[in-house]
Amino acid sequence: MLKLLEVTIIVAGFFAIQNLSRLFKPGFRLVSLSVAQVCYAVLVYLRNPIFNFSPHLKGFLPFALLFILTLFLGRFLGAAAASVQFRPTVINFLTLGLLLPVSEEVLFRGTLLALFPNAFFNGILFSVFHLFNVFSKFESFSLYNLVYRFAVGFIFASSTLTTKSLFSAISCHVINNCLGILLPWFEHETKKRRHDCGGKEQKQ
Prior knowledge:
Blueprint: H1 2-20, H2 26-45, H3 60-77, H4 90-115, H5 119-129, H6 132-135, H7 143-163, H8 167-203
Helix pairs in contact: 1-2, 2-4, 3-7, 3-8, 4-5, 4-7, 4-8, 5-7, 7-8
């Protein structure tokens, strides 16, 4: 019961940081959120650092298969994209691509999984937490997104419990987010070029 209360308090603190970041100007909001989340996650993790960061490949294959499935069939399965198109800038890669996934893994796998060493529960917690994206209108609700996040949360938690290391979870999450910035932008630019080329041909 005390552990469940501790989990609730820790997650509530994470939610509070996300809400407080709205007080900053839009141009500085992402940076402030990323730094605040990392600091909070690390401070909470250091209270009881059970898991280390030793390199291993456990969890990479199932994550890769799930990501590829989403890449090719996500639209047909109802995956929802972010409402904001992020450009592949240094700031976006450092914040969305690195700091935010690191903070989430240190918190969910480094701390919450240590309190409740159950991959299924951890996956559910991770998935439900990301409903904040819907409430903040960052993305529309999607059952597939909910299932996808449960699946990756379960994979990351299983890997961490098996190896006692956060290496795979952090690495895969960083790859997920970086590709999540790069691939939609590449698709958008490709469509834009085709449209521009089509317009030029019509004028000729």
